Amino acid sequence: MAGVTLANGGDNLGVYIPLFATTPQVIVNYVLVFAVMTAVWCALGYLAVNNPLIGSQIRRHGHVLLPVVLIALGLYILSGAVGLIQ
Fold this sequence. Notes:
Helix content: over 70%
Structural class: mainly alpha
Strand content: under 5%
Radius of gyration: 18 Å
Distance between the termini: 35 Å
Shape: extended
Largest sheet: none
Mean pLDDT: 87
């Protein structure tokens, strides 16, 4: 498990270490933006699931919908990456 975690995090390390090393004064800004956006997404998720109109549908079909959305998002990202390579 640790090996998979390190392998998946290598791209993040390759981006963030040089970024933080060259501009350490903005690390606080990055942390604040990350924290605020995490709170916003959590709040939106909470509101969506507790919404009387769509909450029951999300709870009922979410276990099927989530993988479909993630796969579609991954394919969309990969299709854009293929366009950049060509």
